[in-house]
């Protein structure tokens, strides 16, 4: 035991001395080290990471390093350096995320490096090629689950979005037989997925033993995906291959359910919160709400509010709604995305050493007043100069990443959010009962979560 303690002390001392040595010998970025060996600035950084990033940039400039829990996190915050982040051969996405993937989905290192490179093109190809078929089925599912809200009611807007979108999206991507098939099953899934999603960031960094409830939710979801995979191998009368079945043809080892869990999380954890934010922000800005509703009513004027068809033609006739969605994404984008530096990398006048995690914050990138005037203002009109039909976004918009690891499901996500918002606003009139909450400053991973409730009343039109 004494030898182990001695070894750990020497390791911590070596790590601290190494960081200080780097700073003195080479022109590395300014480094925030904290005063506790190994832990470094972890406590200060972890309290409110988004605020910490803003304060560090103001103090140290556009490139700086945070030493926390034995890791060097080097942030690039100037949009002129983003191209290097996304396209340099001296950084690697998979090396940056392999350990978090192991912690959150229990996929071995060997399996991850073998199969992950094929997953992005697989998902992008399936969601692009089959979008017409997927959109028709998804619209049917949204109609079905929106009808379950009844003629009127009230509740948390985020919960209303979850209870209607979760089962519809699962049915659309994983197969209708895999979707929760009763109100009780939907509620159980929502609660367990909520625990998994809310703890995902901590789960990516810490062993399961420190996060017992989160670990239970992970194992429950893995068991669910194993059953889905078993059913997916049975003969089916469905004419359209699901995304899960496409994944099954690609991943051939025992970790297939684990990859399916990651795919499930990716399909729900960002699109559903953005849908909430877009609806809440539209409702809270009367002129925006009026303009959006004018387009929606015009596009759907001959349709019933009970069974409504919103497909590609209707989406093209409601471009302002898409502007609202992209503006919500801009304001509530992830706190950070990352790459691993694999060879010495020059950014501005600094050298970033191999082993550093290179970090880019879409949340703060989207608040650059040179690229986004009045950056805190919800102003959908700013998107009218972008070519949204071709998904060509505004300069500096990096919510979907970039380079070859750009989000493979971005076109599907925009389609599903656009369709759902048109449907729910056409069918129901909403009244906000609470002010729109601020985003929480506690998280870096994924879409920003609200820091308080947002209750609404609704009535069928």
UniProtKB/TrEMBL annotation:
Residue numbers binding heme: 407
Keyword Metal-binding appears in the UniProt entry: yes
Cofactor(s) named in the record: heme
InterPro entries referenced in this protein's UniProt entry, alphabetically: CYP450_sterol_14alpha_dmase, Cyt_P450, Cyt_P450_E_grp-IV, Cyt_P450_sf
Transmembrane helix recorded as keyword: yes
Residue ranges crossing the lipid bilayer per the database entry: 259-283
The protein's name in its UniProt record: Cytochrome P450, family 39, subfamily A, polypeptide 1
Lineage of the organism: Eukaryota, Metazoa, Chordata, Craniata, Vertebrata
């Amino acid at each position: 035991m004494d030898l182990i303690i001695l070894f750990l002390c020497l390791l911590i001392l070596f790590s601290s001395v190494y960081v200080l040595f780097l700073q003195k010998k080479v022109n590395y970025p300014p480094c925030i080290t904290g005063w506790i060996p190994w832990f470094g600035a972890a406590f200060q950084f972890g309290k409110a990471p988004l605020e910490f990033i803003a304060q560090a940039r103001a103090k140290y400039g556009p490139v700086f390093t945070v030493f926390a829990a034995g890791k060097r996190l080097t942030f690039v915050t100037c949009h002129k350096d983003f191209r290097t982040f996304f396209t340099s051969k001296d950084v690697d996405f998979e090396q940056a995320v392999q350990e978090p993937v192991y912690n959150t989905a229990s996929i071995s290192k060997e399996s991850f490096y073998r199969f992950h490179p094929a997953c992005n093109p697989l998902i992008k190809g399936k969601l692009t090629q089959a979008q017409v078929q997927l959109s028709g089925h998804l619209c049917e599912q949204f109609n079905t689950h929106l009808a379950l809200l009844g003629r009127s009611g009230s509740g948390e807007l985020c919960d209303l979005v979850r209870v209607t979108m979760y089962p519809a999206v699962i049915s659309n991507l994983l197969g209708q037989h895999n979707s929760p098939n009763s109100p009780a099953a939907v509620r159980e899934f929502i609660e367990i997925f909520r625990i998994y999603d809310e703890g995902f960031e901590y789960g990516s960094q810490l062993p399961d033993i420190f996060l017992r409830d989160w670990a239970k939710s992970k194992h429950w979801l893995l068991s669910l995906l194993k059953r889905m995979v078993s059913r997916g191998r049975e003969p089916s009368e469905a004419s359209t291959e699901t995304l899960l079945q496409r994944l099954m043809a690609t991943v051939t080892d025992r970790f297939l359910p684990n990859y399916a869990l990651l795919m499930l999380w990716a399909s729900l954890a960002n699109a559903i919160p953005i849908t909430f934010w877009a609806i809440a922000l539209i409702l809270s800005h009367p002129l925006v709400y009026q303009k959006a509703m004018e387009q929606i009513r015009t596009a759907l004027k001959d349709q019933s509010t009970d069974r409504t068809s919103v497909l590609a033609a209707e989406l093209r006739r409601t471009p302002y709604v898409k502007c609202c969605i992209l503006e919500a994404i801009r304001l509530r984008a992830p706190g950070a995305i990352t790459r691993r530096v694999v060879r010495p990398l020059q950014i501005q006048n600094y050298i970033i050493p191999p082993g550093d995690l290179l970090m880019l914050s879409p949340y703060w990138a989207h608040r650059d007043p040179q690229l986004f005037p009045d950056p805190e203002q919800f102003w959908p009109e700013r998107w009218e100069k972008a070519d949204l039909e071709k998904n060509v976004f505004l300069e500096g918009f990096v919510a979907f990443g970039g380079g070859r690891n750009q989000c493979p499901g971005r076109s599907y996500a925009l389609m599903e959010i656009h369709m759902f918002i048109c449907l729910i606003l056409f069918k129901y009139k909403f009244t906000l009962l609470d002010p729109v909450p601020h985003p929480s400053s506690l998280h870096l991973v994924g879409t920003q979560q609200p820091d308080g409730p947002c209750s609404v009343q609704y009535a069928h039109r």
